[in-house]
Structure formats: structure tokens, C-alpha cells
Amino acid sequence: MTETSTILARGGERIRAGRGTALRARNWRAEALLRMFENVLEVGERPEALIVYASLGKAARNWDEACRIVEALLVLEEDETLVLQTGAAVGVMRTREASPMVLSAVNNTVGRWAGSDRFYERARAGQTIWGGLTAAAWQYIGRQGVLGGTYELLRVIANRHFGGEAPENLARRWMLTAGMGGMGSAQPISASMLGLSSITVEIDPAKARKLLAAGGIDVLVDDPDEAANALFAALEAGEMIHVGLLGNAAEAFEHYERRGLVPDIVTDQTAAHDPRYGYAPVGYGADEWIALREEQPERIEREARASIARQVNAILGMAERGSVAFENGNNLRVQAVEHLGEESAERVYRIPGFMEAYLRPLFARGIGPFRWVCLSGDIEDQRIIDELAASLFPERPEIARWIGLARERIPQQGLPARSCWLGHGERSRLARAVNELVASGELSAPVLFSRDHLDSAGMTHPRIGTEGMRDGSDGVTDWPLLDAMLLSTAGADLVAIHSGGGGYAGWMQSAGVSIVADGRPETAERLTLALDLDSGLGVLRHAQAGYEEARGSASQGGETGDAPIRWLGASCTGEEDHA
Ligand code: NAD
């Protein structure tokens, strides 16, 4: 066994991704994927359990498989493909140099067998995992991905409801939310980038103290009135503040609702998608909850759903008085309806999902959470690409603004990386330019491009990414599957298809992609093909579903005008029949 996999096998130690210019694998494509595998563990929440984020999202099935994956990547040739099945290394197959190096399918299960009980049973037996969106596809870059997404979302909300995103429009406004986990902790930080204040509720003192120490919140209190007083004192003084409140979200939200407080924005980012592991019911401290969810999982699930229903009721009350309320991608409403019964659905779903309400017009243009990772580990490489990206798209000044904010405010986590919402044509233009900088030696090592699975073509989740699609295709998984097929034909370096586990069982299907700019001329072609096919399919999907932004983008060659796709029209969407 090599030194690398021995390090991984110990598991107890903090894992650090490979850096520098020396290869351990036989080529940069495999080395890049190896570094990304290590990186998701370096920045992940519980690397000793291979858990990266979102409560149970894992990088590999178990430690034996983690070592097998590393061993395989170390000797993988460019005309070979490593096949992963639900986080286990099944085999290496001879393919072609232009084929993906890694193909991975995680927990894809036929509908009738896709329920959460069967998932937990198989997960306990070590037969399956929840791959998260980016955990098992080794594309997670730490909090920055969700920071960028939350920033974009709040920006759209500010423009829609508060007269614009300029700081003066947000200076005396505040957001009430909950959850300071891997994703949720991004909320106050993204809000602060726009000048918006916040109260964030968290049940686990360790999580809250960690965010306080990292500067993500300014103060931490355990009394809801004290939290509100601190907030209003700061707002009164014209200062921005981010207050952490130790407690249960359901109780805190109810308390504020009873007091008649009307936050400008109200949402939640506990891991409510998983009522067994992700949401603490009212009445338990963090330790008690963590112990009980193993001992009495059914009880915890039942009580968690009941508490979620209370929190949702409080959110609805605030929304009725004027708060902008939305669900932030964690299935909160699904759990509430499960507790309250189907007859509650009409009321509960007055809280819109964040995609349908705010981000869909961007996805329709193929604009979504793109990212790049400097495999050298050198922050100078990151600076060069940041400056390039900030200068390449003057027609969209929000890109340069985000990069400036991100450089200033986002702490380094793992390999230097940048999340940036780029669209169809923009992604490939940047990637080609970076490939040239790798070739010329201006960048010290190759750069990996990827994106979140919650992207224009990559995701079907009828309560998150694809809620309320105009053509009723909310639950249709053809698109992420087509996406994965297209990405494979393009020779992307890693192509993954994931389906939900635990709380997302039966709810989602996604496709993920990673591709390495290694500076070779032939790579430029693969980069262009893979990135344009991916975002292009997203545009086509939305054109087909009836979104004008997509139809415009498709006819104009995407955001940059140089990424042609041809939408063949609406003949099969039924639109003509309705005309
Ligand atoms: P996590 O498990 O790391 O964190 C959840 C946090 O919520 C924990 O700190 C937990 O202690 C806290 N919590 C649980 N119950 C609570 C309660 N009743 N009151 C107060 N705090 C409570 O999960 P995460 O990675 O932060 O993800 C959170 C959710 O966001 C997940 O459902 C995830 O799937 C979803 N998500 C959404 C997006 C998006 O695009 N909007 C992106 C990624 C993840």
C-alpha cells in the first residue's frame, strides 16, 4: 500500500489534499481527481467517518473502499476508466484517452425501492451511501459553494423586494434563519456581504462556537429576547450585526412570531431534509438528540416533523405580516406536510422554494454555481484566475463584484477554489483561457473546473431545483441523465449520477462533472465541449419547458454569444396544442 492510502486508512488524522507540482498519479487527470477526493475530506465536516457535509453526505462507501479508490487513481492510465458504484471501486476498464477517467453512480434506486427506510437499512449494512450532491463526486469546496449560492439568492431578493442590492437598501433590514452546519453557516456570512443583518438559531453549541470563532457571527446568546435586543440596538445605530442564538429553531421562531416580529427575510437551513439525523425536535439538547436518534430513531423522526411543522407555522405567520419567506433547499415543507397531513399542503406551500421564486431565470440562461480549484494549492494561482474572471465579462459587472467580495471575505478552505455563477459560454471561455495560462506556465499547475449538482441541467428535485417547472417536468429525471451521457461523450474527467438517500430518498436525481485544464491543446477541445454541453443542455431544458430567457439565450449563443446550441422548437411540449 502506498504512503497516501496509508494516511487515508488511519482516518483519525486530519487529511490534507496533495499540493504542488509533483505527481503521485501517472497523469494530471488522475492526480487532479485524487487531490479532489482528498480535498473533500480536508474541508469536510467529519472526515474520520468520510462525511463531507449535509448530515450524512459521504466521499466513499467506507475506509477500505477509500483506500481502493486511492490505489486505483494512483495507477490509472489515461485510456482507462475507474468505475465507482455507490462509493466503491468496482473495476478499471480500458476505454479511450478521450473518455472520462472516473464514472460514478451513487445510490440510484428504482422508485418503489427508493424510500428512506430501505435506504437506512442498506446504509447500516454498508450497502449504500448518500453521496450528497458533491461529496461522493469529490467536488465540494467547503462553505464557499453555498456562500456563493446564498449570496446570489439574497441579491435577487434584494433586487426584487428591497429596491436593489446596494448596501443602503439593506442597511436596516434583517433575516431570521436557523442552522450553522456545513451549509447553513454560510447564511450570515452571505448576508454580511450585502450589508444585511441576521439572527441565526442553532441547537448545537459546538457548531455555534465554531462559527463565532470564525467570525461568521458577531455575538452568541442563548435567550431569544436578548438576541432580538442586540439586533435592534445595532439596526437603530445604523450598524450591521449577525447574532447567533443558541436554541431550537421551532421554539425561537414561534417566540418571535408571538412577539409580532416581522423579519425582512425568514428562512431556515437546518438539515430538515433528514428528520432522523438533521433536525433536533423541541425538548432536547444537542447531546441528548444525538444519542436518541440512534436509540429511538422513529420517535426522533416523528417529533422532528412535529417541531418542523411548528417552525413552518411560525414562518407562515411572519410571511402573512410581510416577511419575505422561502424554503432554502432543505425539504422543510415536505416534512411539515408529512406531519400535518396533505390538507395542510395548500397553506404550507405558500412558502415558495428558493429556486422557483428567485433563481430560475438565471438557470434558464445556464447561469449557475460554477467553480474552479487550483490544484497547485498556490493562492497566487487563485489570484491570477480571479483577476482573469473578473476582467473577462465586463457586460456582467456582478461577476467582478462577487470575485472582489469573495477574495476579501471568504477564508481559505482546502485547495484554493472559487465558486462563481457563470453562464452558458462564459464557463468554457474562462476554462480555455485558464488552459492557456497552464500551458504558458503562468499558472503553476493544472486547474479543475466543476459545479454544484444543483445546476441548470444537472438536477431534478421537485421540491428544490425543479419545483414548479412551467411544463410540469418537476420530477422528470431525463435531464440529469441526458446531461451525464453528454458529459461522458465530451470526455469530462469525472462524471457522476447521484440519487437521494435518507431524507432525500425518492426526491432527487443529479449529475456532476469535473474536468481538468492541464494545458494541453487537445484539452481545450474537451473543456469547451464538456462545459458547453452541460450548460447548453440546461438552456435547452428550460427552453423546452417554456422559459423565454432560455429561448433567447439559445438563439443568441449563450451569455458570450459564442457557444451555439440549436433548440428545435416547442413541437413536442404540447404548446402548439394549447395555442
Ligand atoms: P448540517 O447537518 O451540517 O447542519 C445542520 C445544522 O442544523 C446543524 O448544525 C444542527 O445542529 C442544526 N439544527 C438541527 N436541528 C435544529 C433545530 N431544531 N434548531 C436549531 N438548529 C438545528 O447540514 P448542512 O450541510 O448545513 O445543510 C443544511 C441543509 O441545507 C440540508 O438540508 C442540505 O441538504 C440543504 N442544502 C441546501 C442548499 C441550497 O442550495 N439551498 C445547498 C446545500 C445544502
Automatic annotation (TrEMBL):
Q: Which GO terms describe its molecular function?
A: urocanate hydratase activity
Residue intervals of the Urocanase Rossmann-like domain = 142-358
Q: Which InterPro entries does the UniProt entry name for this protein?
A: Urocanase-like, Urocanase_C, Urocanase_central_sf, Urocanase_N, Urocanase_Rossmann-like, Urocanase_sf
Return the SUPFAM superfamilies for the record: Urocanase
Q: What is this protein called?
A: Urocanate hydratase
On whether Lipid biosynthesis is a keyword of this UniProt record, the answer is no
The Urocanase C-terminal domain is annotated at: 361-554
The membrane spanning regions, by residue number, are none
Supply the PANTHER family for this chain.
UROCANATE HYDRATASE
What is the native source organism of this protein? Leucobacter ruminantium
Q: Where is the signal peptide, in residue numbers?
A: none
Q: What GO terms describe the biological role, i.e. biological process, of this protein?
A: L-histidine catabolic process
Give its E.C. classification number.
Answer: 4.2.1.49
Which segments carry the region annotation Disordered? Answer: 548-579
Q: What class of enzyme is it?
A: lyase
Keywords, A to Z, come to:
Lyase, NAD
Residue ranges of every copy of the Urocanase N-terminal domain listed in the record: 15-138
Required co-factors: NAD(+)
Against Pfam families, the record matches this protein to: Urocanase, Urocanase_C, Urocanase_N
